[in-house]
């Protein structure tokens, strides 16, 4: 396996498997999970994660944001169902049907277009009806007219209306009132469809926050997104209910160490000036890799188990840190940007707070310039490198 010096992301597949097991225990019963692997598995790598879950019975399938992400999974041999949570556009219907990808259907016109495509290709198109219970994004509104439209959709040729789902907007907040109202609306829509003799196999409400805080609000399926990767949806969910293990470690190496005199300015704009004689190390990572510029003069890295603060602005490809109090720090020393080193750990949440982001956004922005190294059973099992 290739060794990476500039930067690499270490992905712990065992941690991801553990996290999914914990979420399954939380929902219990016969309910199954959808592994949400949109945005390349929240920056962790969709394909290796999907391959790992192909043989796991309680993982029903996967969810992506767009048709392109789903097709990539099929191209890599993924067989389980894939649900596209966002819009599948008319020019994508053929790829959807040919690859047996599930669309989120939320208009009658969309369903008709998919039906026509399926009939033309002499295939069956599978899709899930999306209900807007309060997210205000996409979905059929909860009313009788929507139930009538869905009943008509169920009779279209060439289609299988396999599921119905909604998305909770505030399940990760302390006040659960809004989520309870959303769930009641979902049940009302389900009842209206039952009255119309509409047959649907799978019902699905919960996201990660819903699984953690509403384990009794179970349906056939539940979507595990951020929790799959060992992160909690917010600080307001009951973290004691589910033990999660962070799956990502971001590592670089020191590329240069120098001593500077008092008055020396560091990086673009000279936003940091050395107040005394200092030792400064350069880290060859920057916002071109998705490491945010907003960590300038704020963030820290771990070198030899000790914290080194960022000095000056984060550049596109490099930034500088203070190693004055780490006299042993030198060229090629490991610099941990995310994860543990010794007894200390830098979390995604810490960096997200400092940079004005949140954990979802932070990991999703880690760029393809960063090689991903996958570990299981204490060894490297796969590497994905954009440049190889």
TrEMBL record:
One of its GO terms (biological process) is D-alanine biosynthetic process. Its EC number is 5.1.1.1. The keyword Isomerase applies. It comes from the Bacteria. It catalyses: L-alanine = D-alanine. Pfam families: Ala_racemase_C (PF00842), Ala_racemase_N (PF01168). Residues 247-375 form the Alanine racemase C-terminal domain. Keywords: Isomerase, Pyridoxal phosphate. Its cofactor is pyridoxal 5'-phosphate. The modification N6-(pyridoxal phosphate)lysine is found at residue 38. The active site is at 38 (proton acceptor), 268 (proton acceptor). GO terms for cellular component: cytosol. SMART domains: Ala_racemase_C. The keyword Isomerase applies. Pathway: Amino-acid biosynthesis; D-alanine biosynthesis; D-alanine from L-alanine: step 1/1. Substrate binds at residues 137, 316. CDD domains: PLPDE_III_AR. One of its GO terms (molecular function) is alanine racemase activity. Belongs to the alanine racemase family. Catalyzes the interconversion of L-alanine and D-alanine. May also act on other amino acids. This is Alanine racemase.
């Amino acid at each position: 396996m290739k060794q990476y010096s500039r930067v690499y992301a270490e992905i712990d597949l065992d941690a991801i498997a553990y996290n999914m097991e914990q979420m399954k225990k939380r929902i219990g019963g016969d309910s199954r999970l959808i592994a949400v692997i949109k945005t390349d598995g929240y920056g962790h790598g969709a394909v290796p994660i999907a391959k790992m879950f192909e043989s796991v019975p309680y993982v029903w399938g996967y969810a992506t944001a767009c048709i392109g992400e789903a097709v990539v999974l099929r191209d890599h041999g993924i067989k389980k169902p894939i649900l596209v949570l966002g819009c599948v556009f008319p020019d994508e219907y053929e790829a959807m049907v040919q690859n047996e990808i599930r669309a989120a259907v939320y208009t009658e016109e969309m369903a008709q277009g998919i039906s026509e495509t399926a009939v033309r290709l002499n295939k069956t198109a599978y899709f899930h009806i999306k209900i807007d219970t309060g997210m205000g994004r996409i979905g059929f509104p909860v009313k009788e007219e929507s139930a009538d439209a869905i009943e008509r959709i169920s009779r279209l040729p060439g289609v299988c209306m396999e599921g119905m789902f909604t998305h909770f907007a505030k399940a990760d907040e302390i006040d659960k009132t809004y989520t309870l109202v959303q769930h009641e609306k979902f049940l009302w829509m389900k009842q209206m469809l039952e009255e119309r003799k509409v047959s649907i196999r799978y019902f699905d409400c919960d996201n990660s926050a819903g699984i953690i805080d509403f384990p009794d609000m179970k349906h056939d399926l539940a979507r595990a997104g951020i929790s799959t990767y060992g992160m909690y949806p917010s600080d307001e969910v009951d973290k004691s209910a589910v033990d999660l293990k962070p799956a990502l470690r971001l590592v670089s190496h020191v590329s240069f160490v120098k001593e500077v005199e008092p008055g020396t300015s560091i990086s673009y704009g000279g936003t940091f000036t050395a107040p005394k004689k200092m030792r400064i190390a350069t880290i060859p990572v920057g916002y071109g890799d998705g490491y945010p510029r907003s960590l300038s003069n704020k963030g820290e890295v771990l070198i030899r188990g000790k914290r080194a603060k960022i000095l000056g602005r984060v550049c596109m490809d490099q930034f500088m840190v203070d190693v004055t109090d780490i006299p042993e720090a030198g060229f090629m020393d490991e610099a941990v940007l995310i994860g543990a080193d010794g007894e200390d750990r830098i979390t995604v949440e810490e960096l997200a707070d400092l940079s004005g982001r949140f954990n979802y956004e932070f990991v999703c922005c880690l760029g393809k310039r960063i090689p991903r190294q996958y570990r299981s059973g204490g060894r490297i099992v796969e590497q994905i490198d954009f440049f190889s």
